[in-house]
Amino acid sequence: MGSRHVAVVGASLAGLRTVEGLRRLGHDGPITLIGDEPELPYDRPPLSKDVLLGKAGPADVALTTAADLAALEVDLRLGAAAHGLDLARRTVLVGDDRVGFDDLVIATGAAARRPNDLPHLDGIHLLRSLADAAALRSAFELDPRVVVLGGGFVGAEVASSARDLGLDVTVVDVAPVLMERGLGAVLGARMTRIAADAGVRLRLGTSIATVHGTDRVEAATLSDGTVLPTDLLVIGIGATPNTTWLDGSGLTVADGVVCDAFLAAAPGVYAVGDVARWTHPGYQRSIRCENWTSAGEHADAVAATLTGNPVAADAIPYVWSDQFGHKVQVAGLPEPKDEVRPVLDTSEKFVAVAGSRGAQSSAFALNAPGALVRQRIKLAARPPWPPEME
Ligand SMILES: Cc1cc2nc3c(=O)[nH]c(=O)nc-3n(C[C@H](O)[C@H](O)[C@H](O)COP(=O)(O)OP(=O)(O)OC[C@H]3O[C@@H](n4cnc5c(N)ncnc54)[C@H](O)[C@@H]3O)c2cc1C
Protein backbone atom coordinates (compact mmCIF):
# COMPACT_ATOMS: atom_id res chain seq x y z
CA MET A 1 0.00 0.00 0.00
CA GLY A 2 2.84 2.38 0.92
CA SER A 3 4.27 2.57 -2.60
CA ARG A 4 1.08 3.74 -4.31
CA HIS A 5 1.28 6.99 -6.28
CA VAL A 6 -0.76 9.71 -4.58
CA ALA A 7 -1.69 12.83 -6.54
CA VAL A 8 -2.83 15.81 -4.50
CA VAL A 9 -4.57 18.63 -6.39
CA GLY A 10 -4.52 21.96 -4.57
CA ALA A 11 -1.24 23.09 -3.00
CA SER A 12 -2.46 25.05 -0.02
CA LEU A 13 -3.21 24.20 3.59
CA ALA A 14 -5.19 20.96 3.16
CA GLY A 15 -3.07 19.69 0.25
CA LEU A 16 0.24 20.41 1.95
CA ARG A 17 -0.86 18.93 5.27
CA THR A 18 -1.96 15.76 3.45
CA VAL A 19 1.47 15.41 1.84
CA GLU A 20 3.23 16.03 5.15
CA GLY A 21 0.94 13.55 6.90
CA LEU A 22 1.56 10.87 4.29
CA ARG A 23 5.33 11.10 4.70
CA ARG A 24 5.09 11.32 8.49
CA LEU A 25 3.00 8.14 8.53
CA GLY A 26 5.49 6.28 6.35
CA HIS A 27 4.06 6.53 2.85
CA ASP A 28 7.08 5.81 0.65
CA GLY A 29 5.46 5.91 -2.78
CA PRO A 30 5.56 8.83 -5.21
CA ILE A 31 3.56 11.96 -4.39
CA THR A 32 2.64 14.64 -6.92
CA LEU A 33 1.37 17.98 -5.58
CA ILE A 34 -0.38 20.15 -8.17
CA GLY A 35 -1.30 23.77 -7.46
CA ASP A 36 -2.48 26.58 -9.71
CA GLU A 37 -0.98 29.41 -7.66
CA PRO A 38 2.65 30.35 -8.33
CA GLU A 39 3.64 30.57 -4.65
CA LEU A 40 4.66 27.78 -2.33
CA PRO A 41 1.75 26.92 0.01
CA TYR A 42 0.88 29.83 2.29
CA ASP A 43 -1.55 30.56 5.08
CA ARG A 44 -4.73 32.53 4.36
CA PRO A 45 -5.92 33.73 7.81
CA PRO A 46 -3.23 36.47 8.03
CA LEU A 47 -4.27 37.86 4.62
CA SER A 48 -7.19 39.85 6.06
CA LYS A 49 -5.29 40.71 9.23
CA ASP A 50 -1.50 41.25 9.42
CA VAL A 51 -0.93 41.33 5.64
CA LEU A 52 -3.48 44.13 5.19
CA LEU A 53 -1.93 45.94 8.14
CA GLY A 54 1.50 45.71 6.53
CA LYS A 55 2.80 43.68 9.48
CA ALA A 56 3.32 40.45 7.50
CA GLY A 57 4.60 39.71 4.03
CA PRO A 58 4.91 36.57 1.88
CA ALA A 59 7.73 35.07 3.97
CA ASP A 60 5.68 35.43 7.15
CA VAL A 61 2.69 33.55 5.77
CA ALA A 62 4.59 30.71 4.09
CA LEU A 63 3.48 27.26 5.31
CA THR A 64 6.64 25.53 4.14
CA THR A 65 9.90 26.07 2.27
CA ALA A 66 11.24 24.69 -0.99
CA ALA A 67 13.85 22.81 1.03
CA ASP A 68 11.26 21.19 3.30
CA LEU A 69 9.17 20.15 0.31
CA ALA A 70 12.24 18.77 -1.43
CA ALA A 71 13.01 16.75 1.70
CA LEU A 72 9.53 15.24 1.43
CA GLU A 73 10.41 14.08 -2.11
CA VAL A 74 7.35 15.60 -3.69
CA ASP A 75 6.93 16.09 -7.42
CA LEU A 76 5.77 19.70 -7.11
CA ARG A 77 3.86 21.32 -9.97
CA LEU A 78 3.07 24.94 -9.13
CA GLY A 79 1.33 27.40 -11.44
CA ALA A 80 -0.39 24.38 -12.97
CA ALA A 81 -4.18 24.13 -12.90
CA ALA A 82 -5.83 20.74 -13.11
CA HIS A 83 -8.58 21.00 -15.72
CA GLY A 84 -9.98 17.51 -15.79
CA LEU A 85 -10.16 14.15 -14.07
CA ASP A 86 -10.34 10.84 -15.92
CA LEU A 87 -11.34 8.35 -13.27
CA ALA A 88 -11.35 5.36 -15.61
CA ARG A 89 -7.71 5.97 -16.61
CA ARG A 90 -6.86 7.34 -13.15
CA THR A 91 -5.29 10.50 -14.50
CA VAL A 92 -5.53 14.20 -13.74
CA LEU A 93 -5.31 16.54 -16.72
CA VAL A 94 -2.82 19.36 -16.16
CA GLY A 95 -2.15 21.50 -19.24
CA ASP A 96 -1.25 19.03 -21.99
CA ASP A 97 0.01 16.60 -19.40
CA ARG A 98 -1.72 13.62 -17.79
CA VAL A 99 -0.66 12.90 -14.23
CA GLY A 100 -1.39 9.30 -13.29
CA PHE A 101 -2.32 8.25 -9.78
CA ASP A 102 -3.36 5.29 -7.69
CA ASP A 103 -4.99 7.52 -5.08
CA LEU A 104 -6.19 11.09 -5.55
CA VAL A 105 -6.69 13.80 -2.94
CA ILE A 106 -8.79 16.78 -4.04
CA ALA A 107 -7.75 19.86 -2.07
CA THR A 108 -8.78 22.67 -4.41
CA GLY A 109 -10.43 24.81 -1.73
CA ALA A 110 -12.81 27.61 -2.56
CA ALA A 111 -12.81 30.88 -4.50
CA ALA A 112 -14.15 34.22 -3.31
CA ARG A 113 -17.64 34.75 -4.70
CA ARG A 114 -18.23 37.68 -7.04
CA PRO A 115 -21.76 38.93 -7.81
CA ASN A 116 -22.56 38.12 -11.46
CA ASP A 117 -23.76 41.63 -12.24
CA LEU A 118 -20.77 43.42 -10.68
CA PRO A 119 -19.06 45.64 -13.28
CA HIS A 120 -15.33 45.18 -13.86
CA LEU A 121 -13.87 48.41 -12.48
CA ASP A 122 -10.58 49.34 -10.86
CA GLY A 123 -10.94 49.63 -7.12
CA ILE A 124 -13.10 46.51 -6.75
CA HIS A 125 -11.32 43.84 -4.73
CA LEU A 126 -11.90 40.24 -3.71
CA LEU A 127 -9.79 38.66 -0.97
CA ARG A 128 -8.75 35.03 -1.22
CA SER A 129 -5.12 34.91 -2.35
CA LEU A 130 -1.82 36.48 -1.40
CA ALA A 131 -1.97 38.46 -4.65
CA ASP A 132 -5.44 39.74 -3.67
CA ALA A 133 -4.14 40.78 -0.25
CA ALA A 134 -1.08 42.51 -1.72
CA ALA A 135 -3.30 44.45 -4.14
CA LEU A 136 -5.67 45.51 -1.36
CA ARG A 137 -2.78 46.44 0.92
CA SER A 138 -1.34 48.70 -1.82
CA ALA A 139 -4.74 50.28 -2.34
CA PHE A 140 -5.09 50.90 1.41
CA GLU A 141 -1.84 52.91 1.33
CA LEU A 142 -3.59 55.62 -0.73
CA ASP A 143 -5.93 56.50 2.17
CA PRO A 144 -9.12 55.50 0.33
CA ARG A 145 -12.72 55.52 1.44
CA VAL A 146 -13.67 51.83 1.65
CA VAL A 147 -17.01 50.07 1.26
CA VAL A 148 -17.10 46.40 2.22
CA LEU A 149 -19.96 44.36 0.79
CA GLY A 150 -20.61 41.50 3.22
CA GLY A 151 -20.27 41.51 6.99
CA GLY A 152 -19.15 37.90 7.45
CA PHE A 153 -15.83 36.93 9.02
CA VAL A 154 -13.63 38.11 6.14
CA GLY A 155 -15.61 41.33 5.58
CA ALA A 156 -15.49 42.19 9.28
CA GLU A 157 -11.75 41.48 9.42
CA VAL A 158 -11.13 43.72 6.41
CA ALA A 159 -13.15 46.47 8.11
CA SER A 160 -11.15 45.97 11.30
CA SER A 161 -7.83 46.24 9.47
CA ALA A 162 -9.05 49.29 7.55
CA ARG A 163 -10.03 51.03 10.81
CA ASP A 164 -6.66 50.12 12.36
CA LEU A 165 -5.13 52.00 9.44
CA GLY A 166 -7.41 54.97 10.09
CA LEU A 167 -9.48 54.49 6.94
CA ASP A 168 -13.09 55.51 6.46
CA VAL A 169 -14.92 52.18 6.10
CA THR A 170 -18.57 51.24 5.65
CA VAL A 171 -19.87 47.66 5.83
CA VAL A 172 -23.02 46.80 3.87
CA ASP A 173 -24.88 43.58 4.67
CA VAL A 174 -28.47 42.38 4.30
CA ALA A 175 -28.36 40.80 7.77
CA PRO A 176 -29.29 42.87 10.83
CA VAL A 177 -25.94 42.17 12.56
CA LEU A 178 -22.39 41.34 11.49
CA MET A 179 -21.43 37.66 11.14
CA GLU A 180 -24.98 36.57 11.92
CA ARG A 181 -24.60 33.21 10.19
CA GLY A 182 -21.32 32.37 11.94
CA LEU A 183 -21.89 33.88 15.37
CA GLY A 184 -25.67 33.89 15.78
CA ALA A 185 -27.74 36.93 16.72
CA VAL A 186 -26.39 37.50 20.26
CA LEU A 187 -22.62 37.49 19.73
CA GLY A 188 -23.19 38.94 16.26
CA ALA A 189 -24.93 41.93 17.88
CA ARG A 190 -22.11 42.35 20.36
CA MET A 191 -19.48 42.30 17.60
CA THR A 192 -21.59 44.80 15.66
CA ARG A 193 -21.44 47.21 18.62
CA ILE A 194 -17.67 46.65 18.87
CA ALA A 195 -17.26 47.44 15.16
CA ALA A 196 -19.40 50.58 15.48
CA ASP A 197 -17.40 51.71 18.53
CA ALA A 198 -14.24 51.25 16.45
CA GLY A 199 -15.65 53.73 13.93
CA VAL A 200 -16.99 51.36 11.26
CA ARG A 201 -20.04 52.80 9.52
CA LEU A 202 -22.70 50.12 9.28
CA ARG A 203 -25.38 49.79 6.64
CA LEU A 204 -27.10 46.64 7.85
CA GLY A 205 -30.36 45.31 6.47
CA THR A 206 -29.38 46.71 3.06
CA SER A 207 -27.51 45.57 0.00
CA ILE A 208 -25.79 47.21 -2.94
CA ALA A 209 -28.18 47.80 -5.84
CA THR A 210 -25.81 49.52 -8.29
CA VAL A 211 -22.09 50.16 -8.51
CA HIS A 212 -21.07 53.36 -10.32
CA GLY A 213 -17.87 54.34 -12.07
CA THR A 214 -16.34 54.68 -15.52
CA ASP A 215 -12.92 53.07 -15.16
CA ARG A 216 -12.75 53.11 -11.37
CA VAL A 217 -15.43 52.49 -8.80
CA GLU A 218 -16.84 55.84 -7.64
CA ALA A 219 -19.96 55.05 -5.63
CA ALA A 220 -22.45 52.39 -4.65
CA THR A 221 -26.20 52.89 -4.46
CA LEU A 222 -27.80 50.85 -1.71
CA SER A 223 -31.14 49.08 -1.89
CA ASP A 224 -32.63 51.85 0.29
CA GLY A 225 -31.51 54.47 -2.24
CA THR A 226 -28.55 55.83 -0.25
CA VAL A 227 -25.54 56.66 -2.40
CA LEU A 228 -22.17 55.87 -0.82
CA PRO A 229 -19.25 57.58 -2.58
CA THR A 230 -16.20 55.30 -2.34
CA ASP A 231 -12.71 54.71 -3.70
CA LEU A 232 -12.64 50.98 -2.99
CA LEU A 233 -15.26 48.26 -2.92
CA VAL A 234 -14.22 45.04 -1.19
CA ILE A 235 -16.44 42.04 -1.84
CA GLY A 236 -16.75 39.64 1.10
CA ILE A 237 -19.84 37.60 0.33
CA GLY A 238 -18.46 34.12 0.85
CA ALA A 239 -16.73 31.51 -1.24
CA THR A 240 -17.62 28.82 -3.75
CA PRO A 241 -15.85 25.44 -3.81
CA ASN A 242 -13.41 25.02 -6.73
CA THR A 243 -14.97 22.05 -8.49
CA THR A 244 -15.45 23.06 -12.15
CA TRP A 245 -12.34 21.06 -13.08
CA LEU A 246 -14.26 17.96 -11.95
CA ASP A 247 -17.16 18.51 -14.38
CA GLY A 248 -17.83 15.29 -16.26
CA SER A 249 -15.57 13.25 -13.97
CA GLY A 250 -18.44 11.20 -12.56
CA LEU A 251 -17.83 12.41 -9.00
CA THR A 252 -20.86 13.80 -7.21
CA VAL A 253 -20.51 17.54 -6.72
CA ALA A 254 -23.13 19.51 -4.79
CA ASP A 255 -21.68 22.63 -3.17
CA GLY A 256 -18.45 20.69 -2.70
CA VAL A 257 -17.21 17.21 -3.54
CA VAL A 258 -19.64 14.82 -1.87
CA CYS A 259 -17.81 12.35 0.37
CA ASP A 260 -18.52 9.74 3.02
CA ALA A 261 -17.42 9.99 6.65
CA PHE A 262 -13.87 9.03 5.63
CA LEU A 263 -13.79 11.85 3.05
CA ALA A 264 -13.90 9.31 0.22
CA ALA A 265 -15.67 10.52 -2.92
CA ALA A 266 -15.02 7.31 -4.89
CA PRO A 267 -12.69 4.34 -4.39
CA GLY A 268 -9.21 5.81 -3.90
CA VAL A 269 -10.46 9.40 -4.34
CA TYR A 270 -10.71 11.75 -1.35
CA ALA A 271 -11.51 15.42 -0.77
CA VAL A 272 -10.11 17.56 2.04
CA GLY A 273 -10.52 21.12 3.30
CA ASP A 274 -12.91 23.78 2.02
CA VAL A 275 -13.82 21.77 -1.10
CA ALA A 276 -15.04 18.70 0.81
CA ARG A 277 -18.70 18.09 1.64
CA TRP A 278 -18.78 15.06 3.85
CA THR A 279 -21.12 13.08 6.06
CA HIS A 280 -20.06 14.04 9.56
CA PRO A 281 -20.39 10.93 11.74
CA GLY A 282 -21.44 12.93 14.81
CA TYR A 283 -23.99 15.16 13.09
CA GLN A 284 -25.14 12.35 10.77
CA ARG A 285 -25.54 14.76 7.89
CA SER A 286 -23.58 16.24 5.05
CA ILE A 287 -21.64 19.39 5.91
CA ARG A 288 -18.94 21.58 4.38
CA CYS A 289 -16.66 23.78 6.48
CA GLU A 290 -14.51 26.69 5.43
CA ASN A 291 -12.06 26.91 8.27
CA TRP A 292 -8.40 26.41 8.90
CA THR A 293 -8.77 23.71 11.55
CA SER A 294 -10.99 21.40 9.51
CA ALA A 295 -8.53 21.57 6.60
CA GLY A 296 -5.74 20.21 8.80
CA GLU A 297 -7.96 17.63 10.47
CA HIS A 298 -9.16 16.36 7.08
CA ALA A 299 -5.59 16.08 5.87
CA ASP A 300 -4.57 14.07 8.94
CA ALA A 301 -7.57 11.75 8.53
CA VAL A 302 -6.95 11.06 4.83
CA ALA A 303 -3.21 10.61 5.33
CA ALA A 304 -4.01 8.02 8.01
CA THR A 305 -6.55 6.28 5.79
CA LEU A 306 -4.13 6.16 2.85
CA THR A 307 -1.47 4.60 5.04
CA GLY A 308 -3.72 1.79 6.17
CA ASN A 309 -5.39 3.18 9.29
CA PRO A 310 -8.83 4.49 8.23
CA VAL A 311 -9.89 7.57 10.21
CA ALA A 312 -13.26 9.30 9.90
CA ALA A 313 -13.51 13.10 9.92
CA ASP A 314 -15.49 13.44 13.13
CA ALA A 315 -13.98 16.51 14.83
CA ILE A 316 -16.29 19.28 16.01
CA PRO A 317 -15.84 22.19 13.57
CA TYR A 318 -13.96 25.16 14.97
CA VAL A 319 -13.35 28.63 13.59
CA TRP A 320 -11.71 31.71 15.04
CA SER A 321 -11.52 35.32 13.96
CA ASP A 322 -9.32 38.15 15.23
CA GLN A 323 -10.85 41.59 14.78
CA PHE A 324 -11.07 44.97 16.53
CA GLY A 325 -8.59 43.73 19.13
CA HIS A 326 -10.80 40.78 20.10
CA LYS A 327 -10.71 37.02 19.56
CA VAL A 328 -13.99 35.43 18.50
CA GLN A 329 -14.32 31.64 18.41
CA VAL A 330 -17.05 29.23 17.44
CA ALA A 331 -17.23 25.48 17.94
CA GLY A 332 -19.90 23.33 16.34
CA LEU A 333 -22.49 24.19 13.74
CA PRO A 334 -24.76 27.10 14.72
CA GLU A 335 -28.30 26.93 13.33
CA PRO A 336 -30.35 30.04 12.51
CA LYS A 337 -33.20 28.99 14.82
CA ASP A 338 -30.98 28.16 17.80
CA GLU A 339 -31.72 29.46 21.25
CA VAL A 340 -28.60 31.09 22.74
CA ARG A 341 -27.81 30.86 26.46
CA PRO A 342 -24.95 32.98 27.82
CA VAL A 343 -22.63 31.14 30.22
CA LEU A 344 -20.38 34.13 30.94
CA ASP A 345 -21.16 37.74 30.09
CA THR A 346 -18.82 40.48 31.30
CA SER A 347 -17.62 43.72 29.74
CA GLU A 348 -14.53 41.89 28.40
CA LYS A 349 -15.66 38.31 27.83
CA PHE A 350 -18.63 36.41 26.57
CA VAL A 351 -19.28 32.67 26.39
CA ALA A 352 -22.54 31.13 25.23
CA VAL A 353 -23.94 27.79 24.22
CA ALA A 354 -26.66 27.38 21.61
CA GLY A 355 -28.99 24.66 20.48
CA SER A 356 -32.43 23.64 19.34
CA ARG A 357 -34.53 20.54 18.67
CA GLY A 358 -33.10 18.65 21.63
CA ALA A 359 -29.40 18.99 20.77
CA GLN A 360 -26.75 21.58 21.56
CA SER A 361 -25.36 22.78 18.25
CA SER A 362 -22.53 25.10 19.12
CA ALA A 363 -20.62 27.28 21.54
CA PHE A 364 -19.32 30.83 21.11
CA ALA A 365 -16.62 32.76 22.89
CA LEU A 366 -15.34 36.31 22.89
CA ASN A 367 -11.88 36.67 24.47
CA ALA A 368 -12.29 33.35 26.31
CA PRO A 369 -10.20 30.74 24.45
CA GLY A 370 -9.90 28.34 27.38
CA ALA A 371 -13.66 28.21 27.87
CA LEU A 372 -14.19 27.60 24.17
CA VAL A 373 -11.76 24.67 24.17
CA ARG A 374 -13.72 23.10 27.04
CA GLN A 375 -17.02 23.71 25.25
CA ARG A 376 -15.65 22.12 22.07
CA ILE A 377 -14.69 18.99 24.00
CA LYS A 378 -18.17 18.84 25.54
CA LEU A 379 -19.81 19.22 22.13
CA ALA A 380 -18.13 16.02 20.96
CA ALA A 381 -20.45 14.12 23.32
CA ARG A 382 -23.47 15.66 21.50
CA PRO A 383 -25.00 17.17 24.67
CA PRO A 384 -28.78 17.58 24.91
CA TRP A 385 -30.65 20.86 24.61
CA PRO A 386 -31.60 22.54 26.86
CA PRO A 387 -28.27 21.99 28.62
CA GLU A 388 -28.17 20.09 31.91
CA MET A 389 -27.38 22.34 34.88
CA GLU A 390 -23.81 21.92 36.21
C1 LIG B 1 -8.79 36.17 3.96
C2 LIG B 1 -9.08 34.88 4.69
C3 LIG B 1 -9.01 34.85 6.08
C4 LIG B 1 -9.29 33.67 6.77
N1 LIG B 1 -9.24 33.67 8.13
C5 LIG B 1 -9.54 32.55 8.81
C6 LIG B 1 -9.53 32.54 10.23
O1 LIG B 1 -9.25 33.56 10.88
N2 LIG B 1 -9.87 31.39 10.87
C7 LIG B 1 -10.20 30.24 10.19
O2 LIG B 1 -10.51 29.21 10.82
N3 LIG B 1 -10.20 30.22 8.83
C8 LIG B 1 -9.89 31.34 8.14
N4 LIG B 1 -9.90 31.33 6.76
C9 LIG B 1 -10.25 30.08 6.06
C10 LIG B 1 -9.04 29.19 5.80
O3 LIG B 1 -7.98 29.94 5.31
C11 LIG B 1 -9.45 28.11 4.81
O4 LIG B 1 -10.43 27.31 5.44
C12 LIG B 1 -8.27 27.27 4.35
O5 LIG B 1 -7.41 28.05 3.58
C13 LIG B 1 -8.76 26.08 3.54
O6 LIG B 1 -7.66 25.41 3.01
P1 LIG B 1 -7.79 24.53 1.68
O7 LIG B 1 -6.42 24.02 1.43
O8 LIG B 1 -8.91 23.59 1.82
O9 LIG B 1 -8.25 25.53 0.54
P2 LIG B 1 -7.52 26.80 -0.08
O10 LIG B 1 -6.72 27.48 0.97
O11 LIG B 1 -8.57 27.55 -0.81
O12 LIG B 1 -6.50 26.18 -1.13
C14 LIG B 1 -6.90 25.54 -2.30
C15 LIG B 1 -5.75 25.63 -3.29
O13 LIG B 1 -6.08 24.90 -4.46
C16 LIG B 1 -5.80 25.71 -5.60
N5 LIG B 1 -6.62 25.26 -6.73
C17 LIG B 1 -7.93 25.53 -6.97
N6 LIG B 1 -8.33 24.95 -8.12
C18 LIG B 1 -7.25 24.30 -8.62
C19 LIG B 1 -7.03 23.49 -9.77
N7 LIG B 1 -8.01 23.24 -10.65
N8 LIG B 1 -5.80 22.97 -9.98
C20 LIG B 1 -4.80 23.21 -9.09
N9 LIG B 1 -4.95 23.97 -7.98
C21 LIG B 1 -6.16 24.48 -7.74
C22 LIG B 1 -6.13 27.10 -5.10
O14 LIG B 1 -5.61 28.11 -5.93
C23 LIG B 1 -5.48 27.06 -3.74
O15 LIG B 1 -4.11 27.28 -3.82
C24 LIG B 1 -9.62 32.49 6.05
C25 LIG B 1 -9.69 32.53 4.65
C26 LIG B 1 -9.42 33.71 3.97
C27 LIG B 1 -9.49 33.73 2.46
Automatic annotation (TrEMBL):
A single Gene Ontology molecular function, please? Answer: dioxygenase activity
Starting at the broadest rank, the lineage of the source organism is: Bacteria, Bacillati, Actinomycetota, Actinomycetes, Propionibacteriales
* Recorded superkingdom: Bacteria
Alphabetized InterPro entries for the sequence: FAD-oxidoreductase/Apoptosis, FAD/NAD-bd_sf, FAD/NAD-binding_dom, FAD/NAD-linked_Rdtase_dimer_sf, Reductase_C
Pfam families, per database record: Pyr_redox_2, Reductase_C
Q: Which residues form the FAD/NAD(P)-binding domain?
A: 5-295
UniProtKB keywords: Dioxygenase, FAD, Flavoprotein, Oxidoreductase
Tell me which species this is from: Nocardioides ginsengisegetis
The Reductase C-terminal domain covers: 318-383
Protein known as: 3-phenylpropionate/trans-cinnamate dioxygenase ferredoxin reductase subunit
* Enzyme class, first EC level, given as a word: oxidoreductase
The EC number of this protein is 1.18.1.3
Question: Cofactor(s) for this protein?
Answer: FAD
According to the UniProt record, one GO cellular component term is: cytoplasm
